[in-house]
Task: structure prediction
Amino acid sequence: MARYEFEAKSMHGARMTNVVYAESAEAAVDNLHREGYVVLSIREVRESIRQRLSAAKPLFGARVSSAAITLFTKQLAAMFNAGLPVIRALYGLAREESNKGFSETLTCVATDVEGGETLSNALAKHSSVFSKVYVSMVRSGERSGTLGVILGHLVKYMHRTETIKRKVKAAMTYPAFVVGFAVLATVVLMVKIVPLMAGIYSKLGADLPGPTRVVITVSQVFAANFWWFVLLLLALVFVYQMMRRTPAGRFTLDSWKLRLWLFGPILRKVVIAKFLRTLGVLVESGLPIIDALELAGATSGNEVVSRAANEIARQVSGGSGLASGFRSTAIFPEIVVQMITTGEETGRLGEMLSTVSDHYDEQVESSVEGLASLIEPLLIVMVGGLIAIMLVAMFLPVFHLGGAIRNTM
Result:
């Protein structure tokens, strides 16, 4: 975001000079117009490299968890609703914060607000801590005069999002550990154990069974090309990262993810639930539906849903209904379209979106629990079976060692 200095008249005719942060001068003027100001002049203020590094200093080395931001928002909402000025609340929370980087960030925000900036503009300067959704909701609360209510919505939204993320992560931790252990065990067997035993059998001149010869051949190929396999893995990671940097690449990868066996349907539910929850909370915050659609799509974490949201926004801006736009994308299930239709007809769109997102959250939880209960024993059997097959294949010649030893004597 760029920094703009402006001179404007308020709705009461008073002149003022201040600064605002926006993507462009046109966006800055639009934001000021929405707040009831008549802009007389505006110019971009370009900061020196020294100033930019100074402004960014609080964020270097600081990792702020979602839980810390949720707690901060909850405390700020309680203080604001109790009648404490925002500046005092920010300074107080900055002093109590144990994370030094986050404390310095909050101090910067409090200083900017004290200097005349809006809270949303002050938060927007720290985009690595406060997301676009967070800033947009705070801005909506400032414009509508319901900042306390909006902060409460933010707390519920962040808490629900973090809860689902934590449950999915916890369910996938054990399978990921088992897979990692299987890969490590297989590499050790192929590189160390199998060649060692193959050398012993070679000296004894044992007649090796077919399974043993297959395992030894695979081990020799793997060991001879080990570093090529490592380079191939690194190349795949590099290609993946490069694809994530382009919209077309992200769209391709995200499309594959949604079609994955077993995991694809769960990922689809997770993405749809996050998108609908974000859209619902933005609509309830008073953000225009087109802006809410674009922002919810951009923060959904999936390029397929993001493009669908932009297409819905385009159709709505052209005069189509929101429900028909959702139906035309063929991504969202019929229950979502029906709930949105009900929300449009009753004027309770935000509530309906929150309801259907809660429904998908429940489905995600049950699906993850079911998948975990299925995949854990399946992985154990597969890993145990793979290692057992390799060990049995390598110890089969032991039963014939007596004859091999007699032949050497």
Residues 48-61 have pLDDT under 50 and may be disordered. Residues 1-46 form a domain with the Ubiquitin-like (UB roll) fold (CATH 3.10.20).
